[in-house]
Design brief:
With 195 residues, this protein is an alpha+beta fold. The protein has helices at 16-19, 23-34, 52-66, 70-81, 104-109, 153-159, 183-191, and strands at 38-41, 45-49, 89-95, 118-122, 125-128, 130-131, 144-150, 166-172, 175-180. Strand 8 (166-172) and strand 9 (175-180) form a beta hairpin. It is globular, with a radius of gyration of 17 Å.
Length: 195
């Protein structure tokens, strides 16, 4: 299986004692990795495409902050692996950051259903995201959504082809935006599938 889409194991997690001395360097590397993988869609939505490195960092930070015991760490690894891209899918986290002065309930109510209206365009392939169940209802939506974009063999081949145009689109009735992505994003996502 590809290097940056294979599941995280317990051996991959250093834990607080080993992680603390390398944390600053590791965090800086992840920040740099995420830069081209972050897409701002309109004025309300950010999407960050995840991979094994970004998700391992997430576990290390949770482990550091919450001082997880082994059973809790095993559960965290298991739940985080559900967010991992696979050999035939991309995975992303969608954020709806809201200014502190804005009424979150009102703002998020206007975006109910947004999780069903996110697409990635890879060349001629338009791929609608599937969202993690339980993060929205007919009346409310969470400000954080976990998305999965299934990749056919042809879409994956297009993603791995240099120069293939990539765009992210939201076609929600109250929030319509399309953003052309950089070649750097395409290359970064494609590299996740390198052997």
């Amino acid at each position: 299986m590809a290097n940056l889409v294979r599941p995280i194991t317990r051996r991959d997690i250093k834990g607080p004692a080993l992680y603390a001395p390398i944390r600053d360097d590791y965090r800086n590397r992840i920040i740099e990795l995420k830069k081209p993988r972050r897409v701002i869609v309109g004025d309300r939505v950010e999407i960050v495409f995840d991979n094994r490195l970004t998700l391992t960092y997430q576990i290390e930070e949770i482990c550091r902050l919450e001082n997880l015991d082994e059973p809790a760490l095993a559960a965290e690894i298991e739940s985080t692996n559900q967010l991992m891209p696979t050999a035939d899918s991309l995975a992303a986290t969608l954020f709806i950051p809201l200014p502190p002065e804005e009424d979150a309930r009102v703002a998020l109510r206007a975006l109910v259903g947004l999780d069903e209206h996110v697409l990635i365009h890879i060349g001629s392939h338009a791929i609608r995201a599937a969202s993690e169940p339980g993060r929205s209802t007919d009346e409310k939506i969470s400000a954080v959504q976990y998305l999965r974009f299934p990749l056919s063999a042809d879409a994956k081949a297009a993603l791995r082809t240099p120069g293939t145009p990539v765009a992210v689109e939201i076609d929600h009735p109250a929030y319509r935006h399309r953003v052309a992505c950089t070649e750097e994003l395409r290359a970064s996502l494609a590299a996740d599938y390198d052997p």
